[in-house]
Design a protein that fits this description.
HIT family, subunit A, globular, 26% helix, 5 strands, alpha+beta, 152 residues, 5-stranded antiparallel beta sheet
């Protein structure tokens, strides 16, 4: 199943060959571009987002290039999210945050990454996206469509 190009990033579908060399996160991993690193080990790198929602907004990326979360091996995903959980606690303490938002969007840079955003209940930030209501019976139909396509 191929990926669709999107208006946010014309490099989708996944980077291949020479295009991988254009990945900004891969360049950060190789120290070709500076970043304010927070934590690093042999599997992941974490650094501050250059356009933070709040102070401490941190990105967590695998050192190996995977364009999307669905491309990333399960073992590595487990490792990343275990580290995210520990880093979330650190961010809560460091910024006296009430909670840390975890977001996986993947439209800005085609290299799987997790956003960790320290938040306070009274920070006046809006929801990340607008919400809607289902029409009568629509939720039931959509749930059935999803169930019919589950293949695991």
């Amino acid at each position: 199943m191929g990926r669709l190009k999107n208006k946010f990033n014309p490099l989708y579908p996944p980077l291949k060959g020479g295009l991988k060399d254009m990945c900004i996160f891969c360049k950060i991993i190789k120290n070709e571009i500076p970043a304010d690193k927070v934590y690093e080990d042999d599997k992941i790198l974490t650094f501050l987002d250059i356009n933070p929602v709040t102070p401490g907004h941190t990105l967590v990326i695998p050192k190996e290039h995977y364009p999307m979360m669905t491309d990333t091996p399960d073992e590595l995903l487990s490792y990343i999210f275990t580290k995210c959980k520990k880093l979330m606690k650190t961010l809560e303490i460091t910024f006296e945050a009430d909670f840390v938002v975890v977001s996986v969007v993947g439209i800005d840079v085609p290299h799987f990454h997790v956003h960790l955003i320290p938040r306070k209940y009274n920070d006046d930030l809006v929801n990340f996206w607008p919400t809607k209501k289902y029409a009568e019976g629509e939720a039931r139909e959509i749930a059935e469509k999803i169930r019919n396509n589950i293949s695991f």
